[in-house]
Amino acid sequence: MAIQALSLRFGGVAALTRVSLEIRRGEILAVIGPNGAGKTSLLNSISGLYRPQEGSIRFFPAPDDEEGVELTRRRPDEIARLGIARTFQNIELFRHMTVLDNLLLGRHIHMRANVLTGGIWWGLAQREEIEHRAVVEEIIDFLEIEPIRRQPVGTLSYGLQKRVELGRALALEPQILLLDEPMAGMNVEEKEDMARFILDINEERGVTVVLIEHDMGVVMDISDRVAVLDFGSKIADGSPQEIRSHPDVIRAYLGQEHA
Amino acid sequence: MDLFIQLTVSGLTNGAVYALAALGFVLIYKSSDVINFAQGELLLVGAYVTFFFVAQAGLAWPVGVLLALAVAVVLGVAVERTVLRPLIGEPIISVIMVTIGLASVLRALVTAIWGPVPRSFPAFIPRDEVLILGAVVSADRLWAIALSILMLALFSLFFRLSNEGIAMRAVADDQQAAMSMGISIRRIFALAWSIAAVTATIGGMLLANIIGVGGNIAGLGLRVFPAVILGGLDSIPGAVIGGVVIGLLEAWTGGYIGQGLNQIVPFIVLTLVLMVRPYGLFGQEIIERV
Question: Which terminal CB of chain A, N or C, has fewer other CB atoms within 10 Å?
């Protein structure tokens, strides 16, 4: 995916200013930056919740596809159908439904049966149901949430809700997974679990991962590349080692005199 | 005893129709937060369209009813396209005001096409007299109750089991998350309005079969407001129970206390209930922690 000169304004406030960024197939890219730097705005622009005024986001669904698809004028549901799934900073689960139902809703874009065809050909709907259940059960296994699968999501702990949300995004079988602070507010053990899940998703399922994270230890450990935003502009990107010693990054985080 | 049974059957009939109309109302409110003031007019339009196909075009009634339901679906989609979509992102109160405008437009259209004089409706539901525990009851009322129960059961299955129904519940729960699952909010809104128009049309034709087609159908449709407020704006079971309670209250007060009072008593009970349960009997309490 190639993001070029992306600008997003809310009235007079510039949330993003000419941000250009490449997301490479199969990588884990971390987006970091101080609070209010525009990290979530960037994710929301990719997933279609915000409409940037300028710039382009081109998504290349297949490796040999040179043309790509422009995302900036598309609706969030269209973008989800293209294979881009996400989680939210403040968990956005369907609170009144069970874990299983939440994950099954992640299968929505893969469902073909509707009221009419299901009424005419019950077998198709049934076969599909079994297929989707299999996919969802596999994700439940993978995320180790078997014991809670029939519980309403609203009753679960924060850490588990985060895990369910990750599972629901996985159920879309996306090419790109956008994670907005997947480890915020977790204890060390929960963070380690989450980091392991993200690595497995990336390696075993071949999903490209873009994550926003504040825990620098985690960021440096699991990401292939890091991009740094500050006041709506990208100030650096590169390998974790490069970023660690980048003067602009140190300035943004620690202030002028340390640079 | 005879009077009690007759009143109860008549109350249940109206209550069942209110429940149908309220179902559509709650659906629209749940999925889009819009309070639809045109719900009574949807019943009116549904009744007249059925009247047109069955009485004026002279079609066999199963065909006429199906065509009327098809018109309802088209009407629902058209409302979403022309009325709601241009207002996406506008304050919800603007959308609610627009539904009041829509109510006037629909009412005026009906008067322009069919005139202001009420007409009799060709009875496609039998009006024979039936004896229940010795009381004489008109069969069309029993049919109306049975059909309403059937429709309510079908729709609750639809919400529970079908992909569209589940997607609709997801939108009601969390619009952002629903969009990120690839659910098209526009389609869901169109679906909600179509279902509202379809249930209203069924309610409208059941009413018309009993009282004829005329402007008073919209007036009866207006009773969805006490019904849904009683049940809780966002609760489908609440809408059904609210509808039945309002229908029964009207019939009993009309029969035992006096005509005219039946217009008021449902609202008195409503006020009393709201004093104890401000979110309605089954409504979701909104608790904001600061």
Answer: C
